[in-house]
Design a protein that fits this description.
It is a single chain. By secondary structure, the chain is mostly beta strands. The chain is elongated and about 70 Å long. Strands 3-1-2-4 form a 4-stranded mixed sheet. The termini are far apart.
C-alpha cells in the first residue's frame, strides 16, 4: 500500500516567516530594536526588539536605533544590553 497524499490544493501551506522591517519610511532593513515613548514624561526608550509587534512601539533597524534623535527637552534611554565580550564569535 502506498502513502496517503491529500488531493492537490487541499493542503494548507505554513505561513511564510517574514522578518519585521524598520518603521522608518524608505528603509528596508530588518528591525533590530523597538522604540517607545511617553509624551507626558517626554521620554523615549530603545529596547531589544520586542518578540511581538505592537502598535505602541516602532521597530527600528540598528542604524536608525543608533542615530535616533529626540526633541529638545526629551530624554532618550537606550536600554538594550551591550553584547558580552565573553560571547562566542563565529569565524
Amino acid at each position: 500500500m502506498g502513502t496517503f497524499r491529500p488531493p492537490l490544493g487541499s493542503r494548507r501551506l505554513a505561513p511564510a516567516i517574514r522578518p519585521r522591517l524598520c518603521a522608518r519610511p524608505g528603509c528596508d532593513e530588518v528591525a533590530a530594536a523597538t522604540m517607545t515613548y511617553d509624551y507626558a514624561s517626554r521620554s523615549t526608550w530603545i529596547d531589544q526588539l520586542d518578540v511581538d509587534a505592537s502598535p505602541a512601539g516602532y521597530d527600528l533597524c540598528e542604524a536608525h536605533a543608533e542615530r535616533l534623535g529626540v526633541p529638545s527637552g526629551w530624554t532618550r534611554t537606550d536600554r538594550r544590553q551591550p553584547p558580552s565580550p565573553f560571547s562566542r564569535v563565529a569565524v
